[in-house]
Amino acid sequence: MKPIRNSAKAVIIENDRILLTVNKDQEGIFYLFPGGGQDKGEALRDTVIRECLEEIGYRVIPRDIANIREYIGKNHQHAEFDYDVHQVEYYITCEIDYEVRQIEATNADDMQIGIEWVELSRLDDIRLYPSKMSGQLQGRESKVCYLGDVN
After folding, report:
1. How far is residue 19's CA from residue 59's CA, in Å, rounded to a whole number?
2. Architecture of domain 5-149
3. For residue 137, which phi and psi values (nearest 5 degrees)?
């Protein structure tokens, strides 16, 4: 069994839009929060900065933890691909550092095909992971920091 892994994800909201990565699998297009795995000896803040540069080409300024989600692969719809994965995801509110020019994404995930600013009002119309965050981001559900193992 694999060890538990930490991941830092960016929640970047400007003008009622959120910046997400656009990805494609056998079922079509889906959206994720930019970010990824924490390296040993790396602070979560540094992880989200590095991962955003790699995936969206922007340097971000991390602010605070918005949500914590556990992902236990065997409990989710694509368990055949990541059955033994257990990941703790820290969703960190971030701002884009516009003092630093955007660069080309250097290390996008395998299924990533781009990035997109998505209107918060459209979150229920797209395949977003984790979908549980849509209601909170749109203000329909109360803010809960620990989400647990949710889709």
Report:
1. 13
2. Alpha-Beta Complex (3.90)
3. -65, -30
Q: What is the pLDDT along the chain (151 residues), one digit of tens a residue?
A: 688 999 999 999 999 999 999 999 989 999 999 999 999 999 999 999 999 999 999 999 999 999 999 989 888 776 556 778 899 999 999 999 988 887 777 777 889 999 999 999 999 999 999 999 999 999 888 888 889 898 8
- Domain ranges within the chain, ordered by starting residue: 5-149
Closest C-alpha to 31, from 120, 101, 103: 120
Helix (H) or strand (E) holding 48: helix 44-56
Coil/strand/helix, residue 60 = strand
- Give yes or no for a contact between 44 and 18, defined as CB atoms under 8 angstroms apart: no
